[in-house]
Design a protein that fits this description.
2 copies of one chain form a homodimer.
Chain A: E1 7-12, E2 16-17, E3 23-24, H1 30-42, E4 47-51, H2 55-69, H3 72-76, H4 78-84, E5 87-90, H5 93-103, E6 108-113, E7 121-122, H6 124-134, E8 137-143, H7 150-155, E9 158-160, H8 174-186
Parallel strand pairs in A: 1-4, 1-8, 4-5, 6-8, 6-9, 7-9
Antiparallel strand pairs in A: 2-3
Helix pairs in contact in A: 1-4, 1-8, 6-8
Chain lengths: 191, 191
């Protein structure tokens, strides 16, 4: 596989905003796991990291993973088992970055996503060409709740442009945002 | 808005296959409603039709819709109210087609989606250019469960090519498939 494909999806549950703009820790949802694991697998992501500082939440994810990887679920639905191969749970973004730096191809770029328009934003096209040209690992950061906290955006190497549809409505679920982002960056299409 | 944007998303709960290949009626899931309504709204779909022959299921959807359109949900999350504006519940695909024919722009093309490779498949690019050239209404049919029954595929005017990622894994959730399909057909991008 092309080195440009060294992508790691990270779903952050802290620090993110709630509806009122406070920095909070959101709950992990079962469906994010299933949908995003399948998207990651489809587009060749190396990992799908679920990041939460809450021990009890990490245990919850571990229980789901073992059901689908080793339990009855693995027999019932082998395709889901395959998708869950790429899933890992970590307590912080720092730990994820460190792990990828140690095991990876050297350079690690952190790309934050946001539904907000930003002057610093990088287009899908230019991120794709940077990845193709420079290789290395790419961490694609997605926020739950009302989006990634400012400190995460500030520390990222790139902020990806928001997904534009054909209307001014920009309230996609994080699952849909991951699907469209992966397709725009890695999808093979004839146009 | 351009006439090419007269798209109607249809999520079919019957006739679809189950895991064993039997034709069944699947249950409506709350999350399909939320995610796909938001996708439809983002990409300017005229409607998102939920189709199920089961009266009790249609009532279930109506309850959810009225919570978010008129109930506490409308006040709590106005963006969700906006997305639910495009949602409608019908008992059969025939009724949806008839309704669009009567209210629409004349020509109605029915486009089925499938994860299976088919010789008859139309590419995303060519469907996009057909819509732009010919105008009219486009019904985009998505199956729940293990996909649309053969009789639905046989009656469609077009079968859209499967979504290809960068791997041979092709088990996206229907929510992800709708997100990527709408982005490929209607998304505005700079490449």
């Amino acid at each position: 596989m092309d080195r440009y494909d060294n992508a790691h999806i990270v779903l952050l549950h802290h620090p993110v905003y709630n509806k009122r703009g406070d920095v909070v820790t959101t709950a992990v949802t079962n469906l994010d796991l299933h949908d995003i694991a399948r998207i990651g697998k489809t587009y060749g992501a190396k990992h799908f990291y679920i990041v939460t500082p809450l021990d009890v939440q990490r245990k919850f994810v571990d229980r789901i993973l073992s059901h689908w990887r080793e339990g009855y679920g693995a027999e019932y639905n082998p395709q889901r088992k395959d998708a869950f191969d790429i899933v890992a749970v970590r307590s912080s973004l720092g730990k994820v970055c460190h792990e990828i730096e140690i095991n990876g191809t050297g350079k690690v770029r952190v790309v934050a996503t946001s539904a907000a328009v930003s002057e610093k934003a990088t287009t899908f096209r230019s991120l794709r060409s940077i990845m193709q040209r420079e290789g290395g690992d790419t961490i694609l950061l997605f926020g739950t709740g009302w989006g990634l906290a400012k400190e995460v955006l500030d520390q990222a190497d790139f902020i990806l442009e928001p997904i534009k549809g054909t209307t001014s409505y920009n309230h996609l679920s994080v699952r849909s945002a991951v699907a469209i982002t992966m397709d725009r960056l890695f999808g093979i299409r004839d146009r």
